[in-house]
Amino acid sequence: MAEFGSAWQTVTVTLPALFLFWFFLFYLSPLNQTSITNIIFSYPTPISHIKTIHDTPPPISSSSPPPPSPSPSPSPTLLSPSYSLTENDTSSLIEGEEKPKKKMSNLERIEADLARARDAIRKAVQAKNHSKGNDDEGFIPTGSIYRNAHSFHQSHVEMEKRLKVWIYREGEPPLVHDGPLNNIYGIEGQFIDEMESGKSRFMARHPDEANLFLIPISVVNIVNTLYKPLVTYSRDQLQRVVLDYIGIISERYPYWNRSQGADHFLVSCHDWAPDISEANPKLYDKFIRVLCNANTSEGFKPQRDVSIPEINIPYGKLGPTPQRASPDKRSILAFFAGGAHGNIRHILLEHWKDKDNEVQVHEYLDKKKNYFKLMGKSKFCLCPSGYEVASPRVVTAISVGCVPVLISDYYALPFSDVLDWTKFSVYIPSEKIPEIKTILKGISPKRYLKLQKRVTEVHRHFMIHRPAQPYDMIHMLLHSVWLRRLDVLLPS
Ligand SMILES: *[C@@H]1O[C@H](CO)[C@@H](O)[C@H](O)[C@H]1NC(C)=O
Ligand SMILES: *[C@@H]1O[C@H](CO)[C@@H](O)[C@H](O)[C@H]1NC(C)=O
Ligand SMILES: *[C@@H]1O[C@H](CO)[C@@H](O)[C@H](O)[C@H]1NC(C)=O
Ligand SMILES: *[C@@H]1O[C@H](CO)[C@@H](O)[C@H](O)[C@H]1NC(C)=O
Questions:
Q1: Ligand 1 contacts CB of residue 98 (under 6 A)
Q2: Is the CB of 59 under 6 A from ligand 4?
Q3: pTM here?
Q4: Which ranges carry the Exostosin GT47 domain (predicted)?
Q5: How far apart are CA 424 and CA 455, in angstroms?
Q6: Which segments of 129-180 are extended strands (E)?
Q7: Closest by alpha carbon to 170, among 248, 237, 224, 239?
Q8: Could you give the residue ranges of the DSSP H alpha helices within 168-314?
């Protein structure tokens, strides 16, 4: 915090921005001080009581002052030393298993296993020790880009050991079991394809051993199939396909009903995906929605839903081509090129389009110029929201070593359970767009070098590998869902 403060204190105009940013990270993120105890470290929430704990935080409004932050102390001490498990400790489940009096049900076995995972994470945090890793993974998260590197590491280790995802077999491609592998929604198809490839270590062989259930529907494919030609924007058809699917699997199997959907998830990068739940909010109340379009003002709930990055995947590749220009070779202060999509971009273009040599903002780019090269030559890359909050520019910026400048309102940042975005990005709320240059010039060279170095560190979490690898984007996605599963206790 001290470092963050000293770098910014000269720019007093940015204080509200700073406040909003902290507010964003510590209030809306599932691993803020209050809720980290919900997610991993406390006695988990019995499913019937989940509602009372997971109250929706009020939306942030840029016009009215935000409600008082629940985390007045900025240092995210993730586990207070006075914390201890209550008498109805989950470990009793484990002991129960060790002296088997009666045969455990499948669900009891799963819950006992999850209790062990919670316990191991809690111990790793307390010991501040990277303990029980069977680290053939070769990577151990450390450093300030993580909100708590110890808990993340242990939680990832536990996931590798225990996560079992059942993929429902019902349905036919292209609406189900398929998805786009390329372009800005490509993560949707890459994820489904990875899970269905038969190569994923997380694939459950039988639903009885699964601790999570994937609804393998592709919203992009539904839109591309059922909405061609596009004569209506009504979400009815989309909503009906998903409702029907859940109807079928909850009729055929006991799993949806026993958890009310709390251990079920769907992954979609499409802008329309959040609208699925509007058809029947009650049905989707506990369902985990993994979305690119993570707008907290449109019903995205950071404690239950998962925000994933949008990534532009060119044909024949798995993401933007990395570049490694050193910080002193970056001659452009800030760069943006793109369409005037949405309100925030309008404001950005109005203030900055082709007006400044240092803050280079273009509405689209001259064909002769290379977009990626220019981003790679920039210190900061402006990543404004477009029609929706997420933008593939964030991952592109990270891939080319350019510090992302997030210009958005209501955006729940990807993987912010684990990642501390203040350490490798700059946040500018939309009303500060006129002050972009002042804000960025107010960042000292020393602080810039730190930010830039951390961008290169965090890159591994924004890369796609096939098959997926520990700590890559697909594992980060799964880990986010895994954390939410750890937050839930299913009664047997
Ligand atoms: C622990 O569980 C027992 C039996 O279910 C219950 O009577 C008791 O009130 C619980 N204690 C706490 C602190 O929740
Ligand atoms: C950390 O964990 C390792 C392996 O479990 C153990 O050998 C070591 O003593 C621990 N170190 C500390 C400081 O607790
Ligand atoms: C799950 O609940 C629904 C609605 O109450 C019911 O129609 C369905 O038969 C149940 N499924 C199973 C497998 O019992
Ligand atoms: C986020 O949601 C709010 C409320 O619906 C909306 O005003 C805003 O435009 C959305 N943001 C983006 C970038 O779409």
A1: no
A2: no
A3: 0.80
A4: 159-441
A5: 5
A6: 165-167
A7: 248
A8: 186-196, 219-226, 236-252, 255-259
